[in-house]
Design brief:
With 115 residues, the protein is mainly beta. The protein is built from no helices and 11 strands. The strands form 2 sheets. Strands 2, 4, 5, 6, 9, 10 and 11 form a 7-stranded mixed sheet that branches. A 4-stranded antiparallel sheet has the order 1-3-8-7, with no helix packed on it. The protein starts with a strand and ends with a strand.
């Protein structure tokens, strides 16, 4: 089992910034990925950004140029720096750690962007 604990959500005005953190109790061995997903009310959960053990990174088109994902393997922690936030970024943000047949989720942290 892997426990994931997110932090850093909150209320921010449009144009502002937030930094999310996700600490994993341990890191999955082998090829793995840590990422952030979000789910807005009435919508499906979607990938925001993911960083792989190889160093590769994927971003959703809607956040490219505004969000930056990074990973500290020594701390088993992944970060999401969110800049130039927009009201449409409002959602619950979930951390995910996946590798092989395993996929673990955090409980989520709420990000609210006001006008």
């Amino acid at each position: 089992q892997v426990q994931l604990v997110e932090s850093g959500g909150g209320l921010v005005q449009a144009g502002g910034s937030l930094r999310l953190s996700c600490a994993a109790s341990r890191r999955l061995f082998g090829i793995n990925a840590m990422g952030w997903y979000r789910q807005a009310p009435g919508k499906q959960r979607e990938l925001v950004a993911a960083i792989f053990s190889s160093g590769s990174i994927n971003y959703a088109d809607s956040v490219k140029g505004r969000f930056t994902i990074s990973r500290d393997n020594a701390k088993n922690t992944v970060y999401l720096q969110m800049n130039s936030l927009k009201p449409e970024d409002t959602a619950a943000y979930y951390c995910n750690h996946a590798g092989g047949a395993f996929s673990y989720w955090g409980k989520g942290t709420l990000v609210t962007v006001s006008l």
